[in-house]
Design brief:
Elements: E1 5-9, H1 15-33, H2 40-50, H3 53-61, E2 65-72, E3 77-86, E4 100-107, H4 116-131, E5 137-142, H5 146-154, E6 157-167, E7 170-179
Parallel strand pairs: 4-5
Antiparallel strand pairs: 1-2, 2-3, 3-4, 5-7, 6-7
Length: 184
């Protein structure tokens, strides 16, 4: 990986920057790239409840989860992150609290193409192997986000179902993807 970037675990003081990064990458991915017609009120409601500094403070403090961030050393900015932990996806085959889940993995648009998503995936898959040995890993990805789905397919995730995802009252349709357990 380029020496320009540092990958590290999130620390307590990253919560505000993580909230800002998540908001920025969410707008880039879903509003600008995928043209989902969220209203400003829907976005602000979602950001207040699901992407706030308080939200990330709780995630960072949760011993059952982990957040990794990628920092650009040239600008001292966080440019990508992944949040993982115990499975919270409801699916007939999922085992809540036994399986793992990728909650979020985002890379700022102008940093895509540097391999940061793959770097994060390799790190979090190692974490899952330690925390949830021989258990499936789950994630939800918006149905129109083919770029993300292709990244996950590269890591042997496959689509197993659908679900709705609420963004401030706007119902998004997502694909549920699963990666089978690690071999022993």
């Amino acid at each position: 990986m380029d020496n320009r970037f540092i990958l590290r675990r999130a620390i307590d003081t990253d919560n505000v920057t993580l909230a800002e990064l998540n908001q920025q990458t969410f707008i880039e991915a879903y509003v600008e790239d995928l043209a989902i017609p969220f209203s400003e009120e829907q976005l602000q409601s979602y950001f207040r409840t699901s992407v706030s500094p308080q939200y990330f403070a709780k995630k960072i403090a949760d011993s059952q989860q982990s957040i990794w961030v990628v920092e650009d050393k040239t600008s001292d900015e966080l440019v990508a992150f992944a949040n993982v932990g115990r499975c919270e996806i409801f699916h007939p085959d999922s085992r809540i609290d036994e399986d793992g889940e990728i909650y979020r993995l985002y890379v700022r648009r102008n940093y895509q193409g540097y391999g940061l998503g793959r770097w994060l995936m390799n790190v979090i898959l190692s974490w899952f192997e330690e925390q949830y040995p021989r258990r499936p890993i789950w994630l939800g990805v918006w149905m129109g986000n083919l770029k993300a789905q292709n990244l996950y397919r590269h890591y042997n995730f496959y689509i197993v179902g659908d679900r709705e995802f609420d963004v401030g009252g706007y119902k998004c349709h997502s694909k549920i993807m699963r990666r089978d357990s690690f071999s022993s």
